[in-house]
Design goal:
308 residues, alpha/beta, eight-stranded mixed sheet, 14% strand
């Protein structure tokens, strides 16, 4: 008999809720002082084979002390719907917008701050481009689509995916064995080490990754990711056209350190760039430094008399 599927524990220590949306049933975590008067913040995890809200745990635990904080499990991940459907940037952006609108409704309709990690930066950027009034400022951590000198100027809404690759990965008889191989402990540890740029990874995140990848439907979204359908082919245009202040934060270690397009965006758009002496998830290694950079960015861009 196959081993029983382990029950998925909460990724974060806050209140866990699910709600229906146009992007399917979504799971989110909520915490923070009820009457702080501070602006709420939304946290959005990255996209990979083992993603979940657990990836933003240090941010969640930090901000819950002073302001309302929310973290979403994107479609296909964590406690959100993992059905067999087409996973695309549009679906992920719709999930971000649904979560944002839910937070705004709970907090008097005010614009929120948001932090997204890696590929999810593309979805937050698209949401902020389409509905700028919903956001005050956005922070993109190790954002994708900026690591080459040639921008992505594909048709609006286009994706970089390959249908033949999705069929090969996700619709073949060997697909379950392939996903099982990709989510072995040693493989997950290998990719976390590449993200950290060090073998000194967060062991708690590794353990949660092992559990979340063994849930029913866990392979659907990752196979779309591996087939590049979750990458936007028009993302450079989206980045350029955001009218809100944007902070890009990235590290100096691991596989996610080169951002040649960031300097161009800093010249033509309202982007600030902060480089930290960390891997691709700086807040795991230096939460105080990361939060200070974000707070200084918001104060400089919005709260100071010189802000435009």
């Amino acid at each position: 008999m196959p081993a029983p599927v382990p029950t998925l524990p909460p990724a974060l220590s806050g209140r866990c809720e699910t709600f229906a949306s146009d992007a399917g049933t979504l799971c989110c975590y909520c915490a923070g002082p009820p009457d702080s008067g501070n602006r709420p913040i939304l946290l959005i995890h990255s996209i990979n084979a083992a993603a979940s809200a657990c990836e933003v745990r240090p941010l969640f635990d930090h901000y819950r002390m002073t302001r309302p904080v929310y973290a979403i499990d994107l479609p296909g991940y964590g406690g959100s719907e993992r059905s067999d459907r087409f996973y695309s940037p549009r679906l992920m952006t719709d999930a971000v917008l649904a979560m944002t609108e839910r937070i705004a409704a709970l907090h008097g309709g005010s614009a929120i701050d948001a932090i997204a990690v890696s590929l999810s930066s593309e979805y937050l950027a698209r949401a902020a481009h389409e509905h700028p009034s919903l956001y005050r400022a956005v922070v993109l951590v190790s954002a994708t689509g900026l690591n080459r000198s040639r921008p992505f100027y594909g048709p609006p809404g286009s994706m970089r995916g390959k249908a033949w690759l999705l069929a090969l990965l996700g619709r073949a008889p060997w697909s379950p064995l392939l996903f099982a191989g990709l989510t072995r402990r040693g493989v997950i540890r290998f990719f976390l080490a590449k993200t950290w740029g060090s073998k000194d990874i967060d062991e708690g995140l590794l353990e949660y990754d092992m559990i979340t990848t063994r849930q029913p439907g866990a392979a659907y979204a990752p196979f779309h990711f591996l087939s590049a359908f979750l990458f936007s082919a028009d993302i450079s245009r989206i980045y350029e056209q955001i009218t809100l202040p944007v902070l890009l934060v990235h590290g100096t270690r691991g596989d996610f350190v080169r951002y040649p397009d960031a300097d161009r965006l800093a010249r033509i758009a309202r982007w600030d760039v902060v480089v930290m002496q960390t891997g691709a998830l700086p807040y795991f290694e230096d939460i105080a430094g990361f939060a200070a950079a974000c707070d200084a960015f918001v104060q400089r861009r919005w709260d100071s008399p010189e802000a435009v």
